[in-house]
Task: structure prediction
Amino acid sequence: MKLSFLGAAHEVTGSCTLLEAAGQRILVDCGMEQGADIYENCVMPITAAEVDVVLLTHAHIDHSGKLPLLASEGFSGPIYATGATVKLCGIMLQDSAHIQEQEAQWRNRKAQRSGAPIYQPLYTVEDAQHTLSLFVPCSYHQEYTIAEGITVRFLDAGHLMGSASIEVTVEEEGRRQVLLFSGDLGNVNRPLIRDPEKPTYADTVIIESTYGNRNHGERKDYIGQLTAVLQDTFDRGGNVVIPSFAVGRTQEFLYLLREIKERGLVRGHDGFPVFVDSPLAAEATKIYFGGLTEYYDQEMRDLIARGINILDFPGLQISATSQESMAINENKTPKVILSASGMCEAGRIRHHLKHNLWREESTILFVGYQAEGTLGRHLQDGATEIRLFGELVQVRAKIATMDGISGHADQKILLEWLGALENQPRVYVNHGDDTVCDEFAAVIRERLGYAACAPYNGDVYDVLTGVMLVAGNRVRLEKKSARKSRSDAVFERLLAAAKRLLAVAERCRGRSNKDLARFADQINLLSDKWDD
Result:
């Protein structure tokens, strides 16, 4: 029985763990990386066709985003997930595939002009649609037999609608082992969904550590914080731009904004508009409020019983088309713009940043975790200028972060979740920044007395003994400075221009000698100027 850590090891995104047990090869999550690599990725030790089963903790792309690639490379087994996760993946994976195809089209237009190789998308919409046919919807707490000797059970992880911790029970050669994959554990007392469900027993635990080295503190006044930001920004005549994850965080903020409007908490700006500028967020919101009451907390159920729909408050506008999106920035009224992606790495949010970052009166409000290397993290860390769509943009807007709104459990909640176990399990810490994984593993050892370590990408462990069988990659990738990255980008632009010049010269074959001589003289004059 072996565990191989193939992603989100000493990194936050790209979750993927391989369990080999009872003759089965089981992937738990198959996520896409977001932001810069900290360690070089390892190659999956088996082919996609050799994977028997996938267990998916939740729909976020850093846990589900490579499933269509896996299927396109030969995986054809079942993908077990909760019913809500299946529905959300129905829109998220197709949206991800659409982004892959759009990026390929954009790159290939440039490639045709420069003579660069053709770029292939990671996967296509057709691949995503095929992947969706492999999903098997499951309910919390029910036991599912996925192979002879292996059963699984889903527990509410409280992170996202349908998110789960997955309990895998293996009977192999007369031995019984219970492995528990935490998935992403949620914060407590959040809008819409329940708190994380505490487990009771596990021999082996694989736990996330996004906030494993810090605590959120006492529950913050979300309404009060957001109201203060809105009031201050609107009084200055600016916009509040919220880079928001399309699934989960956007719906929570619609809930909060409806409450603020209903109670009239923002003074002097009655009817302020709220734009949701993300087709994915719009579709996800329909799913969130499409009858999946089994996943709601009691407060949300009470609202539904009273006939209240957060999609129906004054001033809310959903932007579906590109034209509607562009029109938002032509509207000079102070407003709220909720747009994806939450880490500012892609999507419509980058257009809104371009229109608002340079405005002193506007506020960019971060409401979720920003992974190392992402544009969102650069802004949070105090960047004074960034490049968007080839243009350098000065950062003059107010950069703010809402405290305590995180969708991830903090150290206290993680320890309480682990401490609820009746026995002393062996713990593997993943899904955290490089040093955080090690720090949290040390805290687990010191405070709970559990055997705990933080694997690296490519590490393989024997489940029964905890012995490392294969050591993975422990060499950090060289981190380029922002200046170096910009320099590299400009140099690539120079090479592309040189290739274009060569292509133009090739097309001049057959023209008059006079034209060819003049063109050659121009090139030589330019070369003489730059030839040291």
Summary: The chain has three domains: 2-215+407-470, 222-401, 482-530. Residues 482-530 form one domain. Residues 83-114 form the longest helix (32 residues).
